[in-house]
Design a protein that fits this description.
The protein has 126 residues and is mainly beta. Helix content is 0%, strand content 48%.
Length: 126
């Protein structure tokens, strides 16, 4: 059973930066794709970013391209989401997700991931 724990959320002003972290309870370097999703207030969960097992492939939602960066440290079983130039519309609960053998063209799909963290709140004030 893979357990994921997110941290790093908070309340910031527009234009600020935050780095989210997600630590896995098991070794994730073997074949695990990792993703970040978010759920804004009153809306459906949406894709933010994903990274494949060896960090060769990364994907981003159009709304965060150029502002967010996903990375991973397999030695620390951790995936990061560096968020810059935050906007009020980035306000959401952010979830990390993990699963093995997620094919590249499906890494943006939440139904491809079986393991989820509990979420961390990010609030961006204007």
């Amino acid at each position: 059973q893979v357990q994921l724990v997110e941290s790093g959320g908070g309340l910031v002003q527009a234009g600020a930066s935050l780095r989210l972290s997600c630590v896995a309870s098991v070794r994730i370097f073997t074949n695990y794709a990792l993703g970040w999703f978010r759920q804004p207030p009153g809306k459906e969960r949406e894709f933010v970013a994903a990274i494949n097992w060896n960090a060769v492939l990364t994907y981003y939602a159009d709304s965060v391209k150029g502002r967010f960066t996903i990375s991973r440290d397999n030695a620390r079983n951790t995936v990061y989401l560096q968020m810059s130039s935050l906007k009020p519309e980035d306000t959401a609960v952010y979830y990390c997700a993990a699963d093995a053998w997620v094919v590249a063209d499906k890494m943006n799909r939440s139904d491809e991931y079986r393991h989820w963290g509990q979420g961390t709140q990010v609030t961006v004030s204007s």
